[in-house]
Amino acid sequence: MEETISLQELMNVLKKRFMMILAIAIVAITIAGVVSYLILTPIYQASTQILVNQEKVEQQGFNSQDIQTDLQLINTYNVIIKSPAILSIVIEKLDMDITPSQLTEQITVDSAQNSQVINISVTDPEPFKAVDIANTTGQVFQEEIQKLMKVDNVNILSPAEMPENPTPVKPNPKLNMAIGVVVGLMIGVGIAFLLEYLDTTIKTEQDVEELLELPILGLVSPISEKEMPTPAARQRRKKR
């Protein structure tokens, strides 16, 4: 016999297990909040911008070919910025006890489409350190690119600055807690339906009919304590 579940039955299951589902959601949001605020280390970000332009300026100014050449060089510059040739000098200047490969993981280099501006973003648990790394990386690149590619077409457009009240970019406690609520509700609903599926006890007439695959001919109504005969009434019945 094929089993079908109606929407009303689904709602009944959710109502029946509502407190359990709510408890699991509360536990999930609590865990997410504790992890976000007390366990995960706040990470701060600082960014500096570098402008790539022509080494020599003609009397008529830039032409489209010059700009296209600079745009093609930006991809090369992005790789050079994160190379050991640049980062090893940055580490030496800041007296950092890490390797260039480790520093590479903290640095993100990108540029907007058809833009001659390169963004160097640095993340670090200490906000002032992120600022120092971003600015030093830009300065070292500006100096070393002249030796590496014999060009002088890089200028610091916007150095990184230390804000008065630094705000970490991650973790995001509110987002994590929102995700915790969703995950908790999903787990709670899943457990509710699993418990209902595993519960094979017979509770209603419909359960009996589905189990035996036979129609129900009659029911025995429950008898309340008030309707139960007293011992004296039983004795009178026996005498009769």
TrEMBL record:
The main location is: membrane
The annotated topology with respect to the bilayer is: Multi-pass membrane protein
Q: Where's the Tyrosine-protein kinase G-rich domain?
A: 142-194
| TM ranges | 21-40, 175-195
Q: Where in the cell is it found?
A: Cell membrane
Q: Which InterPro entries does the entry mention?
A: Bact_polysacc_biosynth/exp, GNVR, LPS_length_determ_N
Q: Which PANTHER family does this entry report, sorted A to Z?
A: FERRIC ENTEROBACTIN TRANSPORT PROTEIN FEPE, TYROSINE-PROTEIN KINASE
Protein name, entry field: Capsular biosynthesis protein
